[in-house]
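Page 42, continued from yesterday. The earlier attempt failed because a stray header line got pasted into the input along with the sequence. Redoing it now with the clean sequence only.
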Amino acid sequence: MRRETEQIRSFNRFYTNHLGLLNEHILNGPYSLAEARILYEIGLRQPVTAQKLAALLDLDKGYLSKIIKMFVNDGVIERTSSEKDSRVYQISLTSQGSNVLSELQGKSGEQIEGFLNRLSKDEADMLVSSMRTVESLLSTDYNNQVLSRQVVYQEGLRPGDIGYLIYLHGVLYARESGYSQEFEGYVVKTFYEFLEHYDIGKDKIWLASYNQQIIGCIAILSKPNNEAQLRWFLVHPVFRGTGVGKHLLTTALEHCREQQFRNVYLLTTDVQQKAIAMYKKAGFQPTASIEMEQWGKTLHEERYDLSLIN
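This time it went through. Structure tokens are written below.
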């Protein structure tokens, strides 16, 4: 059995016990978890048909029919014929049903506040961001575009950002390109030089973050002779192909044009074929290649240039 499978099972057991989801009546109310969830969806989407509820909640129509009859008998919902089709019934909450739902939501809010009050603000933020990620990853329509819609972009650095960028470069280049730890030392040196000679007017760095964690970066450094160098272009594997990299590269090149650099160049290696394809698509052309022994591998260091002179 995969370790991840057992961890998800463990989380399910913890979560259901923690919220009392196995109790016959949720939050000491009159209904079970499933019944309360159906009542909530009716209140959220009213008027709504039983067919739509069944599809939305992936419920057996017979099972749903029994619950709807119970709700009618309890006086919490009412059914009215659709004006378009008399065979179809629209379901809505009665005033009594609204009161029941409001009470359940109030108790749910109190329960959640009880959990959060035991946590610091940083711990609560971590909990909520983790839940958001779980919801996105397990959604039925999931692809990494779902996550990318929650990416936040920023210009400039906050305390700790460079340390995390060094970590990301070290981990990802070791895993994907087989670079030795010497590469991480090289990255440390380049960031040190960046901070030492930082020109706030022309040097720029942009970050992409998901749940307050950096998942992408790119920088433009001013160079003599009105040139600029593109550096540290990186996107976390989960977010590749979502437009995050394109957004960062476009932002960087727009800055170069605004600053009227005559040329922008970058240095990479022949190992980085996916990145090179993106550079070429943006108009960069190969201008030099040197074979060298570096970071535990035999590499071709390659230079690509993009002329910005019309």
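Notes: The longest strand covers residues 213-223.
Reminder to self: strip header lines before submitting.
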